[in-house]
Amino acid sequence: MKKVIIAEKPSVAKNIADAYKIKTRRDGFYEGDDYLVTWAFGHLLQLYDAKDYDENMKGWRMEKFPFIPEDFKYKIKCDSSNREVVDKGAEKQINIIKSLIDRDDVDGVISATDFDREGQVISDELFIHYDIKKPIYRLLLNEWTEDEVKKGMANLKPNSDMKPLQDAGIGRQLADWTIGINLTSVATLRYGASEKKTINMGRVLLPTLKIIYDRDKEIENFKESSYFKLLINLKSKDNIEFESLYYENGSEKFEKKDYLDNLTKILKEKQAVVIDKEIEKKREYPQSLFNLSNLQGYITSKYKGWTSDKVLKVAQGLYEKKLITYPRTASSVLEESLVDKAQKVLETHKKGLPYEEEIKFIKSKRVFDNSKVESHSAITPTYVIPKGLSAEEQYVYNAIKNRFIMQFMPVAEFEETKITLKVNDEHLKGEFISKGKVEIIKGWRVVEKIETKDTILPLIEKGENLYIVDSKVNKVTKKPPKYHTEKTLLRVMETCGKSFKNDKDEEENDEKNTEEMMQAILSGFSIGTPATRAETIKKLKDIGYIKTKGKSLTTTELGRTIVEIFPARELLDLEYTGKLEKTLSDIEKGKFKKEDFLNLIYDFTRQSVEKIKNDNSMLHKFKIEKPEGAEEIGKCPVCGNSIIEGEKGFGCINWKNGCTYTIWKNDKFIESLGKMVTKEMVELLLKNGKVGFRNLRSKKGTLFSAYLRYEKDEKTGYYSWKFEFIN
């Protein structure tokens, strides 16, 4: 008997076939003595469109939403260029997979898709859709080398063990479908109908847009400020000049330039005495192994023309070529079980390097730590030596390989010197400080030839007197924050902004932020997943919500408008989105039920749809031509378009876009006061915001005078009349 192995892609299927020396290639699969190895092309199935459930959903109309199916169904995915027809390639491959599973000589199925939410769903969709009854097993791998394939096949798990992962994956699918279909439809009807523009909404899309918007606003609202600092040049006994900075009360920043200018006059012809000298040896470790976000950030900031989406595609290609481990990971350390394997990989890659003798394998918590591994270990090279890589593949591969080798190089060491000086004058209350740094051991820095800009101080001792050569006052203007780049945006998405509120995107900050960052990642508190973040950024560009200038990301006018007017504010909130992603993470860990999560999503969707339906914030943007022959009585107070007379009332011509402003001719309230709604009355109301009446009749028959206003009740959404009595 045989088993069917389903890989995520043809290239992975070939890796499995190669591991078992299966040479026979059929149409859509490999056939061996024990295994039939076939493949998907990513998702072969997709969720039904709304119109597949109900023919009436073909045309978007407000009253049809919210639309939430009782039972979600799958179909063969649509052609990418024409959604009305089935993707023929997907249809053919699905039929091949189904026919292989149905064969009489097959007694089981092995799912060999990627070990993550999306990979789990790619195969499980098929099993659910076709109600597969034969035993299903799961192959769990982090790389596709021959050794790992055989090791994984010897340790198969029942696919039923992966139910929490399946629930998280399908939960994500249904949540994104529900929010995306409903909110995109009603938002387009409400805000984009006149321009025939689709207003895309999404669970991950909007909070990511909000991150970029907030940084843009921060830059716009930045108020320039300056401070001053005092510097002196000193000369040692060896005639070596160096610089020193003036401090008072622990600060080098001064608001008043005049104060420092006076001090420069005092400093002329003065000497400074060395009152303290501190020498401290410091160690500097390499940055952690790459996870996907850090790899994307590193490559996009180092090389021109790269996007995070491109980095992922190249890394995925290297993974399928068996050259690196699984790239879609959030971890920057390795599982402790990988110690032996890591040593083998290191021994392979260090051969022939000019610093080979310095590379020593050490098991350390900085590299191997189970408590900091989220699903998959960090990205590393495999023992397979690459051949014939393209220039782009080489960039990504070298970055991963070098970062791995760095972990086993000597720690970089340098000596930091701090010299404190005092000028003997009562007006100089503070002290001058000079700092210098000298590299002692280059260590891991030689791997990528990282240079240090050392400030070398002359050899001077405590108690030594030094001549002040000159002094100067410098003005320092505080710079506004920098626009987000893909590197900084990915970091905020990864942690929902936790621990990075004041991060200036300096390389040296990466190491000290690692601990808090990992805690955020491990808890699942993030926007999207490593696999989806690049796609999100790309989509924001494609739909015109953000634009790029060099490496900077900024919002477009459309993107800004969406953020400013969108009424379902929770979807723009990092905290809210982070909680949703954490809930998916908890489902994956068996701590939360898929059904409970989806009920939250459905309630949120229903509430959000109603908020959008009742939102009039964009109506003023729609300028509608009044019908030919119609007379404008006045301007609509809600949207600024024309009010015209109709058969039953006076209404706004912008009604198709949702403007409900109407004054009915047979208004019962006005009639109860003994008056009629007339054209002249409406004209005055629209012009002045109120209309005056004399001889109004109360219910008791009393006559009175009053101004009447026509205002909307925000709670009910209906317009009603308000009194303002005239004495």
What is the fold's blueprint, element by element?
Layout: E1 2-7, H1 10-19, E2 24-26, E3 29-31, E4 35-39, E5 45-47, H2 50-53, E6 74-76, H3 88-102, E7 106-112, H4 117-129, E8 136-138, H5 146-153, E9 157-158, H6 163-192, H7 205-220, E10 226-235, E11 241-247, H8 257-267, E12 271-284, H9 292-302, H10 308-320, H11 339-350, H12 391-406, E13 412-423, E14 431-441, E15 465-477, H13 486-495, H14 509-522, H15 533-542, E16 546-549, E17 552-555, H16 557-565, H17 574-588, H18 594-613, E18 634-635, E19 642-645, E20 649-652, E21 662-664, H19 668-672, H20 679-688, E22 691-697, E23 703-712, E24 719-725
Parallel strand pairs: 1-4, 1-7, 7-8
Antiparallel strand pairs: 2-3, 3-4, 5-6, 8-9, 10-11, 10-15, 11-14, 12-13, 12-15, 13-14, 16-17, 18-19, 19-20, 20-21, 22-23, 23-24
Question: Overview of this structure, please?
Answer:
This protein has 727 residues and is of the alpha+beta class. It has five domains: 154 residues, Rossmann fold (3-Layer(aba) Sandwich), CATH 3.40.50.140; 180 residues, Topoisomerase I, domain 2 (Orthogonal Bundle); 126 residues, Topoisomerase I, domain 3 (Distorted Sandwich), CATH 2.70.20; 115 residues, Topoisomerase I, domain 4 (Orthogonal Bundle), CATH 1.10.290; 92 residues, no CATH class. It is 35% helix and 20% strand. The chain is built from 20 helices and 24 strands. It has a seven-stranded mixed sheet. Strand 10 and strand 11 form a beta hairpin. Helix 10 crosses helix 12. The longest helix has 30 residues. It is flat, with a radius of gyration of 34 Å. The protein starts with a strand and ends with a strand. About 2% of the residues have low confidence.
